[in-house]
Design goal:
alpha/beta; Rossmann fold; 2 domains; 5-stranded parallel beta sheet; about 30% helix
Length: about 525
């Protein structure tokens, strides 16, 4: 087992014993009472002597155990986080703190048992959800674990994540859709476990914000044929094309078979000429599309949607943090699209990380940096571990404002960017500065993956898009094409709190203020329609 002990300025073995401050302590992780947040989140930067909440008179030796994949195909992930941990330790750790690294690749359980021999005050890692579940099942109840999995099912009982929960990114952009007065939207997501889960998160958020979800489509990642077929189905191309064909047939039949005056012939010919310049008629029963895949797949989907006559002028385009690092910012066809994302990584960390590791910092590296600073602050804090970890006011880390929850998930403040084809998106909603106003109302533990669902539409009546003389209407009456269900009237929105304020500088000063809990929100399920057979 590769075990490395890191000190501030040196690497070696600690003299003296290593203490565990949690001996004989029993914690009910699911029943921790949090007071209302204040307006001042705690800054995780700085050494203990800089006054970020640590007890500098503590001379007892302490240890942090780190569980990472340090060999095998996932070793680059582990090395990225290890470099970020070293960056934090060399910058901020007291001299009586050691850090021990253990490789989870051969066997996670064995690695953890060896880590316990160092009597750690806290564990950082693991990365993957299966490893987190393994540790949760065997760890001492009183030992906090700061992992990097975003799988809510792997969290809890003291296993907490430092990563961004996908549900945060999804709800943030659904809230923006609500602010844009979106009435009906569809989801296009990758056909993966995470894609189905994120689609479930979007459905939950849409129910909370009273937006109609009118179709869910899944595609195979990086598969052009699957992406094309998905765009075709989402555009209702078959029905709109069939309606277009029927409209041309009606006009042609009347011109061929009926006695018409000059004005009637001219009008019908003009309509035929206009139809010859298009391939579809009829609109789409949604005004927004939420893409839950990466930037490359989204770019292909939008291109095919345009081919099937659905453009950004027909439906606004939205995405999540999955668009980070893509080429969408320079794509003219994506002009006006919005997505949720973390704020820029703090340059203090990015520059230092690059100096130490020789590589550019990633989001995973910044999460590792925050985890280490959190662990250090917790160990030397005069507060109990749970009081420190679950500070309702949150913390300012390398990626901005965040806080940890007793259920094991995290909340990170996000901003909204809008693409403008310039290469540099415009920030249209800045990141929140405090948790005084709740940022999210849905819980990742309540989210379930969902399956695909066809668009609910009243169909397209070709006769609605052409004009024919009244005396021929009954003879050339067309059937509605593509109808499958009737949609009940749009849900009337009730008053909803703005959870992602553009400016939250004015603190709530009410003494009795408490955060809104997700289980107090009354949701109206939008998939309960009155079905009427055509």
């Amino acid at each position: 087992m590769n075990r490395i002990f890191i000190y501030l300025g040196l690497i070696g073995l600690l003299s003296g014993c290593v203490s565990n401050r949690y001996d004989n302590e029993t914690i009910d992780w699911s029943d921790i009472d949090l007071s209302a947040p204040t307006t001042s989140p705690q800054n995780l930067y700085g050494r203990p002597s800089d006054g970020y909440g640590t007890d500098t008179t503590d001379n007892t030796s302490h240890n942090i155990a780190v569980l990472l994949p340090l060999s095998g195909q996932n070793a680059p992930i582990g090395e990225t986080i290890r470099a970020s941990i070293m960056t934090a330790v060399l910058s901020n750790a007291p001299s009586n703190l050691s850090v021990s690294f253990f490789d989870t690749t051969p066997n996670t359980q064995d690695a953890f048992y060896q880590a316990l021999e160092t009597s750690p005050s806290v564990v950082i890692g693991p990365v993957f959800s299966d490893d987190a579940r393994t540790i949760r099942d065997i760890k001492p109840n009183d030992l906090p674990v700061l992992s990097f999995t975003s799988d809510a099912d792997a969290l809890g009982d003291g296993v907490i994540t430092m990563a961004l929960m996908p549900t945060n990114g999804v709800e943030a952009i659904v809230h923006e859709m609500y602010a844009d007065n979106t009435q009906n939207f569809i989801i296009i997501a990758p056909d993966t476990q995470s894609g189905h889960l994120m689609a479930g998160a979007a459905k939950s958020a849409s129910q909370a914000y009273k937006i109609n979800l009118n179709g869910v489509f899944f595609y195979q990642e990086s598969n052009p044929e699957s992406i094309k077929d998905t765009a075709k189905n989402a555009s209702l191309n078959d029905a709109r094309t069939a309606a277009h064909t029927r409209a041309r047939v009606v006009l042609s039949d009347i011109l061929t078979n009926e006695q018409l005056n000059f004005l009637e012939k001219s009008n019908l010919n003009n309509q035929l000429e206009k139809l010859s310049k298009t391939e579809t008629i009829g609109g789409i029963p949604y005004d927004a599309i939420l893409f839950l895949g990466n930037g490359s797949d989204t770019q292909s989907l939008v291109s095919f949607l345009r081919y099937y006559n659905v453009s950004a002028s027909d439906a606004r385009l939205y995405g999540t943090t999955m668009w980070d690092g893509s080429n969408l910012a320079s794509d003219i066809t994506m002009h006006g699209a919005k997505y949720s994302t973390l704020p820029p990584t703090a340059p203090e960390f990015s520059n230092l990380y690059e100096q130490i590791s020789g590589t550019t910092a990633t989001r995973l590296a910044s999460f590792g940096y925050d985890a280490t600073n959190m662990a250090i602050s917790m160990i030397y804090s005069p507060n109990q571990p749970t009081q420190y970890l679950f500070n309702p006011s949150g913390y300012i880390g390398a990626d901005g404002l965040f806080r940890l929850k007793p259920t094991g998930d995290s909340e990170r403040a996000l901003r909204i960017l809008q693409l403008n084809a310039s290469g540099t998106p415009t920030e249209i909603k800045p990141v929140a500065k405090t948790f005084v106003k709740p940022l999210y109302i849905t819980s990742p533990h309540d989210v379930k993956p969902i399956k695909s669902s066809e668009i609910k539409t009243t169909g397209i009546d070709p006769d609605d898009y052409i004009y024919i003389p009244d005396r021929f209407k009954s003879k050339y009456d067309s059937e509605t094409i593509g109808a499958n269900t009737k949609i009940s009237p749009t849900i009337q929105r009730s008053q909803i709190i703005a959870f992602l304020p553009e400016d939250d500088s004015e603190a709530i000063k009410t003494e009795n203020f408490t955060p809104i809990k997700s289980d107090t929100i009354k949701r109206s399920y939008i998939d309960e329609y009155e079905i009427v057979e055509e």
